[in-house]
Every structure is written in C-alpha cells, then in structure tokens.
Amino acid sequence: MMTSSTSEKPLVELTKGVNGLEKVILREVRGSSAEVYLYGGQVTSWKNDLREELLFVSSKAIFKPPKAIRGGIPICFPQFANRGPLESHGFARNRFWSIDKDPPPFPASTSSRAFVDLILKPFEFRLRVALSPAGDLMLTSRIRNTSTDGKPFAFTFAYHTYFSVSDISEVRVEGLETLDYLENKERFTEQGDAITFESEVDKIYLSTPTKIAILDHEKKRTFVIRKDGLPDAVVWNPWDKRAKAIADFGDEEYKHMLCVEAAAVEKPITLKPGEEWRGRQELSAVPSSYCSGQLDPKRVLLGS
Ligand code: TA6
Q1: In the predicted structure, residue 35 carries a pLDDT above the cut 60
Q2: Which of these, 47, 130, 154, 214, has the minimum number of CB atoms within 10 Å of its CB?
Q3: Could you tell me which CATH class the domain 12-302 is placed in?
C-alpha cells in the first residue's frame, strides 16, 4: 500500500469495516478521504479536507450480504431498477469485488495517487475509484464484453450517488431545466426553473449535460457532478411516506439526502464481443456563497 511522505497514514489502506467487511481507505495529504467496500465495489464515505462527510449512508444501512448497503455510491449494473429480468438495480451492488492488481493502463493520465482498482468477475467490469489532491472523487468504470459466443452484451447502468444535504427543502439542482424526463415510464418535459424538493421525486432525466450542480443553501456548499459516457441523470428522494416503507432507511432521513445519479438508462449500452465501454463520474464539493449572491450557480455549470 502506498504511503505519503508527509503523513503517517498510508494513501491507500486495505482494512476491515462494518461487520468485518473489507474496505479500502483512500487519503490525500490535505485531509480528504474516501472509503470503498469490496462488497458492492461501493464507495461509502467521501470527506473533504475539513473531514466533513459529503455522502449519505443510512443509520439503518445493513452491511451484510445479500442486502446492498443503503447509501454512498451503489453501482447499478447490469440493470437499472426493474428495467429487465434481473433483481432491481442488478447485482454489482451485492457481489464481492476483488482488488485488480494489474489493470490495463488508463488512457488519460491522472495526478491522483490515492486510488484503488477493483474488478467484478467474470464480467471484466473494472472500477477505478480515485481521490484527487484537491479532494475530488472520481469513479471510472470500464466494462468489456469478453464473450466468445459472438453475442452482444447489453446493459443499463447508474452511479446511484446518495449526497448528504443539510435540509432537502433548501436544496436545488441546476442543469436539468427544460429537459425531458421519464417518471413511471411516461415522458414529460421539465419546466424552466431549477429543481427544488417538496415531495417524492423519482425521475430519469434524458440526454443531460455533462455537468450538474446541487446547491445546498444551508450548508453553503455546491456539489458539481461531471460525467462522461452516461447520458441520463436520475434524481431520487423518497420523501416521508416512501421512506417509511424502506426497512433500511430512517423515517426522517429523506431530509438529509438526495440521489443524483449519472446513468445510462433510456438506451441500453450494447457491446459487441471484444468491445469496451467507459463511464465516468467526477464529484467536487465547493463552498458556495450562493445565498449571499457571490456565486452565480450558472457559473458553476459553465466553468470548467
Ligand atoms: O434510482 C431511483 C430508484 O430506482 C428509486 O425508484 C428507488 O426505489 C431507489 O432507486 C432505491 O432502490 P433500492 O432498490 O436501493 O431500494
């Protein structure tokens, strides 16, 4: 495991988490960190350099197979929700992944030294979770069709990210205005305004921009999601009634979470034998003085 010259703790550490499940801790020298469980290949923690947790994990999360961990970044693969014959959201989130000791090289070089490569067999689903020196969290999935029977492989996919928010009624999402979305399999068009929350939301926005912002008014924090290879974006908050029906989710926890999910849902990705797909999500959390008008949320979306 890699160690940093300035700190005692290793940049990448394999250790035990809840119920003895193996997890990898990533640390950057300025203080940010992330945790990834081999169970589900699931990120369960992402902290900024002030050690503030940026992801939501339910206090009722069950860290025990076959239940998927409620919170963090579950990976929905090879099926999103119930859009196919498999169990809801597929099985990647409740399988044990392995550390990929010899991954093929990444095309883009990265300045990140705190990263881990995981693999889900027998799919050749390779996942790199990396923390940048600035504390950005990057997930890159590479999925290859290794079949020898000449058959194509089709799948849907989502990084089902649970963001931690101070108060859902003070949150707005920018970047999805005027887009088409699916709700209960029907197609609608979003109005011109930023999305705010006052009841259950479960929508799949289609052909979305590569950048989406979540503005947390109370925390004065803006999450920026940058995505590549993932045209859709799912927005989910169960609100009070639905929350009560979810066993591993606290009745009031809906107030402190929001899922915004970089996804490929409407049009399944199809790989011919030998083909590889790459889907990437990059998360940043920036302080925003949005409420005092110093930061125009549109600039967060327009800036690089
Ligand atoms: O991504 C939104 C969604 O598909 C919702 O419909 C909701 O059920 C949620 O995911 C959670 O699903 P889960 O299977 O984890 O309970």
Answers
A1: yes
A2: 154
A3: mainly beta
